[in-house]
TrEMBL record:
It comes from the Bacteria. This is TetR family transcriptional regulator. Keywords: DNA-binding, Repressor, Transcription, Transcription regulation. Residues 1-50 form the HTH tetR-type domain. One of its GO terms (molecular function) is DNA-binding transcription factor activity. InterPro entries: BetI_C (IPR039538), Homeodomain-like_sf (IPR009057), HTH-type_TetR-like_transc_reg (IPR050109), HTH_TetR (IPR001647), Tet_transcr_reg_TetR-rel_C_sf (IPR036271). Coiled coil: none annotated. Residues 13-32 bind DNA.
Amino acid sequence: MELIAERGYRRTSLAAVAERAGLTQQGLLHHFPTKELLLVAVLEARDRWDLASSAASAAGSWRTGTLAQLVDYNATRPGIVQTYTVLSADSVTEDHPARAFFESRFRAVREAMAAVLRAEFGETLPGGLTPERAAPLLVAVMDGLQLQWLLDPQDVDMPAAFRDFVALLGRGGD
């Protein structure tokens, strides 16, 4: 994950991953026969470690306060956040092997966020949007805050900014 975060997927070689992991390239290839399978394993590991994957399966019990705890947790692991950010941005390029993963993941996360918003606000948020209309905005705020925090951690307090956004949700247009 560190190498992908540092170099991006396309500039990360299996030889460099093997060296960083303390393996021979043949040893790495035993576990991950292709670079694409390694990438999928990295993404799946990130989701296992990320509480957001739990949101997709248990969204009905989550609230925005739970999401704020997720943002707090992400602030303790900049390397994983950086890897996710680099890979998700890189996946929009033509023929990227992670594109299908991120398309599916973002669909599932939007659905989970709509369920979170519905559980907390009902069918209409204070600003008048439905949970489905607000869900992409919530995901954009979370991902955008991560990017800003990675670029300027001294000036961007990701957990505080997310809590400010949640406060805006609760007040609507006030």
